[in-house]
């Protein structure tokens, strides 16, 4: 049975001051009347039964997640006692799924991405599920064809192609249309429809190697070769298989997860969960397993994808005015202002500007950010400074 595990424990510090410890990026309504988390769950409709949708999050965020997703079973909110990166998170989710479904297939995905069209996304996940059912030892990841030499993403280098569909079916299936454009990534809006591959004909490859975030010159080389994909952080595999892989490559992590599994029906489960999970050394799933495993495949995504990494994502989804300003605010009064991003969710708050250019302005009830929008990566420093000064009411 197909299950979806949505990872929703991130802090979203690059979206300060709207993003806070109790209301991080995935819980914000940035592009519609639904939060990024709600959009992620909605995107799975018709593919994964609601009873098989799980959300992994922190103890602090669990009440807000439950409030935003009242349709989920309460036990479908998987609470991590502390932050330990994605490998322990995924391992804990696999332990829980196997209690309910010994043959569970997991789709693992972040809560804070935007993907369109839904049909292409679901088609890709169905193919991944078929590949895993054909060979349960496979680990499937999705790759985004890069549209520019990004330095902020990890990369996947593809190897040999995997014939799919099987040869006996291929003759009766239409081939990929020639000259199909690449899927959009950050820098391209999610508008229109991606080039859907007919009848499930998608590009599948062995993974040659995973690569860390590159410098600009290397990223340019990756782009020019045509063999590299952005790592979307979306995976499909058997729950049993990913636990076996963790046992092989991270035996200490596995031993803690196994003790949690053994205590599942014990009255001391909450205590065991807290003690054992806290004792795990945090690792990303890429570092812990994917970079070491042997049977890893990448599917070239035929959909548009955006990781919504910082406030400049608004420029990709909200049309600019004639002066290049992106206005995500109810009331604005601009004079001699160009290339700015203005965000305010208060319908009664007026934002007025005079003589500004290329600024980011974010207004919240207790904090206002004014920054050069080209220095957004420095926003993390603000949250660090606030913590150092003890001004936790702004975090």
Overall description:
This protein is of the alpha/beta class. Helix content is 29%, strand content 24%. The protein is built from twelve helices and 17 strands. The protein has a five-stranded mixed barrel with strand order 6-9-7-8-10. Strands 12-14-16-17 form a four-stranded mixed sheet, with no helix packed on it. A two-stranded antiparallel sheet has the order 5-11. Strand 1, helix 1 and strand 2 form a beta-alpha-beta unit. It is globular. It starts with a strand and ends in a 6-residue tail after the last helix. The model is unreliable at 168-184 and 187-200 (pLDDT under 50).
**What is the straight-line distance between the termini?**
40 Å
The number of helical runs is: 12
Give the overall shape, derived from the CA principal axes.
Answer: globular
Strand order of the largest sheet: 6-9-7-8-10
How many DSSP-defined strands? 17
Question: What is the radius of gyration?
Answer: 22 Å
Sheet with most strands? 5 strands, mixed, barrel
Low-confidence stretches: 168-184, 187-200
Structural class: alpha/beta
Order of helices and strands: EHEHEHEEHEEHEHEHHHHEEHEEEEEEH
Summarize model confidence as the mean pLDDT: 91
| Residue share in helix | 25-40%
Residue fraction in strands: 15-25%
């Amino acid at each position: 049975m197909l299950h979806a595990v949505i990872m929703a424990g991130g802090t979203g510090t690059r979206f300060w001051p709207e993003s806070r410890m109790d209301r991080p990026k995935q819980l914000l309504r940035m592009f519609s009347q639904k939060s990024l988390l709600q959009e992620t769950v909605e995107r799975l409709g018709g593919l994964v039964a609601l009873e098989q949708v799980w959300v992994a999050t922190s103890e602090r965020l669990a009440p807000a997640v439950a409030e935003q997703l009242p349709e989920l079973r309460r036990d479908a909110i998987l609470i991590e006692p502390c932050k330990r990166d994605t490998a322990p998170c995924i391992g804990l989710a696999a332990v829980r799924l196997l209690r309910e479904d010994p043959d569970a297939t997991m789709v693992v995905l972040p809560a804070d991405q935007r993907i369109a069209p839904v049909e292409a996304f679901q088609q890709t996940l169905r193919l991944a599920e078929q590949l895993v059912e054909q060979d349960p030892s496979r680990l499937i990841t999705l790759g985004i064809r890069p549209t520019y030499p990004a330095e902020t993403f990890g990369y996947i280098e593809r190897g040999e192609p995997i014939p799919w569909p099987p040869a006996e079916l291929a003759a009766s299936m239409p081939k990929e249309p020639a000259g199909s454009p690449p899927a959009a990534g950050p820098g391209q809006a999610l508008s229109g429809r991606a080039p859907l591959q007919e009848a499930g004909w998608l590009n599948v490859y062995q993974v040659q190697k995973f690569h860390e975030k590159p410098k600009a010159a290397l990223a340019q080389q990756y782009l020019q070769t045509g063999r590299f994909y952005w790592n979307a952080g979306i995976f499909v595999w058997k729950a049993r298989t990913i636990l076996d892989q963790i046992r092989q490559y991270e035996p200490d992590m596995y031993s803690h997860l196994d003790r949690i599994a053994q205590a599942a029906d014990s009255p001391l489960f909450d205590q065991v969960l807290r003690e054992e999970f806290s004792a795990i050394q945090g690792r990303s799933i890429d570092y812990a397993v994917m970079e070491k495993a042997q049977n890893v495949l990448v599917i070239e995504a035929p959909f548009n994808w955006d990781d919504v990494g910082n406030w400049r994502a608004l420029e990709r989804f909200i049309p600019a005015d004639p002066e290049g300003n992106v206005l995500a605010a109810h009331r604005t009064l601009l004079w001699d202002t160009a290339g700015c991003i203005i965000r305010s969710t208060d319908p009664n708050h007026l934002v007025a500007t005079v003589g500004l250019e290329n600024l980011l302005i974010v207004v919240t009830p207790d904090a206002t950010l004014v920054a050069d929008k080209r220095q957004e990566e420095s926003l993390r420093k603000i949250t660090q400074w606030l913590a150092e000064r003890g001004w936790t009411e702004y975090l």
